[in-house]
Amino acid sequence: MNTEELKEILSKISSGDISVEEGTEILRDLPFKELGYAKIDNHREVRVGYPEVIYCEGKTVEQVKGIIEFMLTKNNNILGTRASEEMYEAVKTICPEVEYNKLARTLTIRKKEIKAPETYIAVVTAGTSDIPVAEEAAITAEILGNRVERIFDVGVAGIHRLFNRIDLIRGARAVVVVAGMEGALASVVGGLVDKPVIAVPTSIGYGANFGGLSALLAMLNSCASGVSVVNIDNGFGAGYMASMINKL
User: Fold this and answer.
1) Could you say which of 3, 44, 191, 219 has the lowest number of CB atoms within 10 Å?
2) Which residue range is the domain that position 61 belongs to?
């Protein structure tokens, strides 16, 4: 439930279109729903503009299914990150329209259309191996109501590939740059665009990459201004932040 929907309910109670009892029943699950193993934050969209997202990793299949089963009673789009195929199959039994992206490991259910701004978000990867994290960012931004342009495999090992797509990248309202190895692409893009760059270090790389730590430190030490950094492999965090920027 967002702020406008809440205002509409209160207005209907005030005008007598629905009774106080009916309104109370609608609002009964605010601010959260207690499921025993989870407390679903139904007030989050009112507070921050976006509904709660389900981080599926570490949860059981039945827990994920139970959370989504309740969330389906609300008129919100649903996003689950780090989901397994087993979780997808379980959710499909209660919601056949659920979509699963194997690369991103995301579950998405679209319950309502969100009007996207005319501006868009660019999601850029250094290599093909970085695409799973980039897809998590892109799908997150899309389910939150944004247009996304994907520009993949344009890393510094073949910098001419980046310049071939630079106009598309420069046209974005925010740019998500996903890179492993030494993570240099974020600094390069940051020096070429006048928009916020959200850098995502990935765990892709050989041993001295230290599971993404080398890319993380390189991005944090970027000499290009306007580059911010999220955690290793955190495509969701980057997509969420890019959406907030795009809708300012």
Assistant:
1) 3
2) 27-109
Same domain assignment for residues 71 and 169:
no
Same domain, 48 and 102: yes
Query: What is the residue-level pLDDT of the chain in tens, covering all 248 positions?
Result: 566 766 777 787 788 877 877 666 666 566 766 577 777 777 666 677 777 889 999 999 999 999 898 888 887 888 999 999 999 999 999 999 999 999 999 999 998 888 888 999 999 999 999 999 999 999 999 999 999 999 999 999 899 999 999 999 999 999 999 999 999 999 999 999 999 999 999 999 999 899 999 999 999 999 999 999 999 999 999 999 999 999 99
CA distances from 21 to 17, 27, 31, 199, 215 (A): 12, 10, 18, 49, 56
153 domain-assigned: yes
Give domain status of residue 102, yes or no.
Answer: yes
Domain boundary among 109, 139, 169: 109
Whether residue 124 is found in the same domain as residue 103: no
- Structural element, H or E, at residue 137: helix 131-143
In 3-state terms, what secondary structure has residue 218?
helix
Alpha-carbon distances of 128 from 66, 75, 152, 237, 241, rounded to whole Å: 35, 36, 7, 20, 23
Q: Are 73 and 99 in contact (CB under 8 A)?
A: no
**Secondary structure of 32-92 as H, E, C letters:** EEECCCCEEECCHHHHHCCCCCEECCCCCHHHHHHHHHHHCCCCCCEEEECCCHHHHHHHH
